[in-house]
Design brief:
alpha/beta, 8-stranded parallel beta sheet, globular, binds alpha-D-psicofuranose, binds manganese (II) ion, L-rhamnose isomerase activity, EC 5.3.1.14, L-rhamnose isomerase, Xyl_isomerase-like_TIM-brl, metal-binding
């Protein structure tokens, strides 16, 4: 059993990265519900993200999405973030919101459009140089809607070519994080549909290419913790995009639909001591809050990951290994369930007090007056870029 002091130290050291786009207005293709007080600029998104860190103490990094967060001076944006107690994290490329990408971006049959997409990826690395970001997160909406529409194999060749050109441009401490998604917006065939495809491309590229698991990007019933365990074993798990789903890529709050799945994922992480920031795994959120207030929703999400992590840290590993070795099926399962069924909220309140935080971040944020302040100050909030 891990010592209580080690559990507390691990919880204090945990780091979660929040997405800039969670704070803007978002919705579905049916309706974007505008909320009062949402950010109008990348700076205001960062200011909101800083609130999430101020009340949770474990979310000091903010991912950017380009061009949603385009500014003239990225080094200045990084300083702005630092002044608010956070730093800029992964740069998310966007080659999916341009008329030119109707038939794909880096896999498009037209070399001119492929070049345009690649130029954007390279521009994102320039931005990383200015912000000091380590991670370039790549998700491609590329695919086809109809059998015969394009050559599946040729598209893989084009993808590999663009990835390789981007990889060559990386600095020594920079990485590509390649994200997969099993469908949408392409419906017949997606060019990076699963972890196996992402993993194969990463293997060819080299050690600075790692796979991102977006928890919302799988078919129902997929055993995500298996993918976590496998990629960890191969040293190719680069990051998570955490969120929850019921039906498709719902982007709901992590841990809200299936907290047990989140616990099982965090158990695989904790089991091999990969929670520590030095492990290189970037624990990001990728969520949109269409109907709920955004800053509290981000705070709740961070707390959900923290609770699942605390439970995973409480697994009695010695008892688990003993039961597994003895072939004690029910005993082994019971050890995991005991940890999952533990109420970790009192422990987490104590950990927060140790960190000089309010033990109840949701209530503390509500009392802070920040929500009222931004509603009064901001008029004409910006759309997240999603669900237009
Ligand atoms: C695609 O569905 C995705 O998960 C990618 O990470 C995008 O960058 C993100 O959503 C945009 O919200
Ligand atoms: Mn994602
Ligand atoms: Mn997604």
């Amino acid at each position: 059993m891990t010592e209580q002091s080690e559990v507390r130290a691990a919880l204090r050291a945990q780091r979660i990265e929040v997405p800039s786009w969670a704070y803007g207005n978002s919705g579905t293709r049916f309706k974007v519900f505008a909320q009062p007080g949402v950010p109008r600029t990348p700076e205001e998104k960062i200011a909101d993200a800083a609130q999430v860190h101020a009340f949770t103490g474990i979310a000091p990094i903010v991912s950017l999405h380009i061009p949603w967060d385009r500014v003239d001076d990225y080094a200045k944006l990084a300083s702005y973030a630092a002044e608010r107690g956070v730093r800029l994290g992964a740069i998310n490329a966007n080659v999916f919101q341009d008329d030119d990408y109707r038939l794909g971006s880096v896999t498009n049959p037209d070399p001119r459009i492929r070049r345009k997409a690649l130029d954007h990826l390279l521009e994102c690395v320039d931005i990383m140089d200015a912000t000091g970001s380590r991670d370039l997160k790549l998700w491609f909406s590329d695919g086809t809607n109809y059998p015969g529409q394009d050559d599946i194999r040729a598209r893989q060749d084009r993808l590999a070519e663009a990835l390789s050109a981007t990889y060559q441009r990386l600095g020594p401490d920079q990485r590509i994080l390649l994200e997969y998604k099993f469908f949408e917006p392409a419906f017949y065939m997606t060019d990076v549909p699963d972890w196996g495809t992402a993993y194969a491309h990463c293997l060819k590229l080299g050690e600075k290419a790692q796979v991102v698991i977006d928890t919302g990007h799988h078919a129902p019933g997929t055993n995500i913790e298996f993918i976590v365990a496998f990629l960890l074993r191969e040293g190719r798990l680069g990051a998570f995009d955490f969120n929850s789903r019921f039906y498709a890529d719902d982007d709901l709050m992590v841990g809200s639909a299936d907290p047990f799945q989140l616990f099982r994922i965090m158990h695989e992480i904790v089991r091999v001591d990969a929670l520590r920031p030095e492990s290189g795994i970037n624990f990001m959120l990728d969520q949109c809050h269409n109907i709920e207030p955004k800053i509290p929703a981000q705070i709740r999400s961070v707390l959900n990951v923290q609770e699942a992590t605390a439970k995973a840290l409480l697994v009695d590993t010695e008892a688990l290994t003993a039961a597994q070795s003895a072939g004690d099926v029910l005993g082994a399962n019971g050890v995991l369930m005991d940890a999952f069924n533990t109420d970790v909220r009192p422990l987490l309140r104590e950990v927060r007090a140790e960190m000089g935080l309010d033990p109840d971040p949701m209530a503390a944020y509500a009392r802070s007056g920040y929500a009222e302040k931004i509603v009064a100050e901001r008029v004409g909030g910006q759309q997240a870029g999603w669900g237009a």
